């Protein structure tokens, strides 16, 4: 399954940006490849940049990596619920509240990257376990309809979005 297989009724408009950034490879392959590309990219960032903020109130690179981890966990929980045919509408989350309640800047970079890798590998195993029917299931999160397979590609696109932000605003 590729991102081009996802129908417009499987996601709300604002997630289209992340879907476009996910590329058009197969979901399982892109989940794995994008993780390795991101880790390699981050490991090549100069050490003095990890605590840098390009403007007042903006997150550091470490805080953004933590944000990517937290967001992927939330997307994975949504995918789990919907794949199991849970029809309970799920709430949105306030990303700034999450960022304000981490200690990302005091963490070692390798610990952040290991955590990201563990979360992604868990999600890879989860997505590999799903049938085509489960991947196409749709649930409600943040008041919007979204499919399990769209959430997988959104994880990839969200990560790639932040890598692009690193390139454009931090390096």
UniProtKB/TrEMBL annotation:
Source organism, top-level taxon: Bacteria
Domain DinB-like as annotated: residue spans: 31-163
Pfam families (alphabetical): DinB_2
InterPro entries recorded: DinB-like (IPR024775), DinB/YfiT-like (IPR034660)
TM region positions: none
Name of the protein described by the UniProt record: DinB family protein
